[in-house]
Amino acid sequence: MRKIVLSAVILVSAIASNAQSTVFKPFKVDLAMGYAIPGGSGSKGGVLFAVEPKYAVNNNIALGLRMEAAVMARSSVSSTNDQFKTDVKASGSYLLTGDYYFNTNTFRPFAGIGAGLFSIAAGYVESNGEVVEVAAGNKFGFTPRLGFEVSHFRMAIEYNMAGKTGSINNNYLGIKIGAFIGGGRISK
């Protein structure tokens, strides 16, 4: 993990020495919270929190490091209502990200992608209290995303793909709202 972060810092530093945004301040930090919807049937939901420092390479491209924590639950009940199954999972992710902004207006739609490490812990319990499965581990995954920014407000939808741990699906959809510090327009 240290090698990945060090490589990312060197890459961003090399790019930063040659170019930067001329319309927006180059550094910003996104702060977001939102709703996490686990993949699979019987999906319920959960919460997520994210912090993402970024550097604007130019007016349309920003590179960052997303650190996110998500906690989700999923339950199902048998057709006779006498048994239920529940799985609970927590995911922490550390992704290198890139966003492409389609314009430099006040309303800025974007598309982006992230790739990196998901640290996952999950448990699966049946109605009699029997723990069927407990799984934990690190997985490589990626996250496509779409969203927009207006002034310092940000909204995004992301699909986090981290595969399975045992029989537990780790993928989830994240719907985020938040704000960012820094990164505003450069005063002229």
Descriptive overview:
With 188 residues, this protein is mainly beta. It has one domain: Porin, CATH 2.40.160.20. Helix content is 9%, strand content 66%. It is built from one helix and ten strands. The strands form two sheets. Strands 1-2-3-4-5-6-7-10 form an eight-stranded antiparallel barrel. The protein has a two-stranded antiparallel ribbon with strand order 8-9. A hairpin with a 2-residue loop joins strand 6 and strand 7 (153-160). It is elongated and about 70 Å long.
Please describe the topology of this protein.
Elements: H1 2-18, E1 27-38, E2 43-56, E3 61-77, E4 84-101, E5 107-126, E6 131-150, E7 153-160, E8 164-165, E9 168-169, E10 172-182
Antiparallel strand pairs: 1-2, 1-10, 2-3, 3-4, 4-5, 5-6, 6-7, 7-10, 8-9
